[in-house]
Request: fold
Amino acid sequence: MANLLAYQLNEKATYRTLTKPDIGSRELKHVEVADTKNKTLSLSQALISDSVSKVSKLPVGDKAELLRFLLDSRVVNCNVTLLGTETRGTSAGSVYDELKFVGAARDFDRMFDNVSIQMNTPLLYTRLGDDILLQFNINLASILKNNVYNDLLGKMLEIYIRGAVTQYHISSLLCTTTTLNYPERGEVDIYDATINLMCEVTAGKNKRPTDVNLLKYKRNAEFIRVLTTQETRDEDRGYHRIPYPVFCCMLDTGDVKKLTKHFGETKPSGEFASSDNF
Reply:
């Protein structure tokens, strides 16, 4: 079950993708690769196929119990996408309790509507990703050149950063990580109140300032607001732009907590006037 969770690179896991992952094709759909028909994903295919074979034979209740065990063991975190005030109450604890009552596949479908469960130590992601690149003869430079917001690298970075953030959650056994995506404000990939961090994850060239949503949430509070980039570093826009390898290292060493905190933008009138907290 942990093997399958470690391969969830798509935006939100579902019960169907958990038990029947589409190995490699989704992550590589934007990359032009020659002569891929005869390629095989040896490690990925063997590891995932073996896990699918085992997990598919388990009763739904046993799958739920396995997920509870992984949450209880702090092997995984529960990532929640906040789409508005109605989803704020969702947490790893509430998912943990809900798993007690899972009796059918439709219960999993409902639970995964705004929740995904991901590994806290995502080394397997990078190993599988490396395997995919090797088998398809693709290097990092070609990914960045073909699609600056590619699924493979971008999702691996998001998951790595979320896993790294959980090391700061020492006061709670069950780890919840959060994505903000209010329709009127746009997406912030990682929000964490433990170290007051907001992060938009990119691996390519810089986003245009108008496309960055970091200043639209928690306007009245000081947060470490970070946009990861390919190579640019500055903080002249009210948020930090930091190369993604540097930022990952800063999370691992704790230096992220030394970064300057910034307030959000001045609260505008109209559609954003309500909901001061977010």
Observations:
- The chain has two domains: 2-179, 183-278.
- The mean pLDDT is 79.
- The chain has ten helices and seven strands.
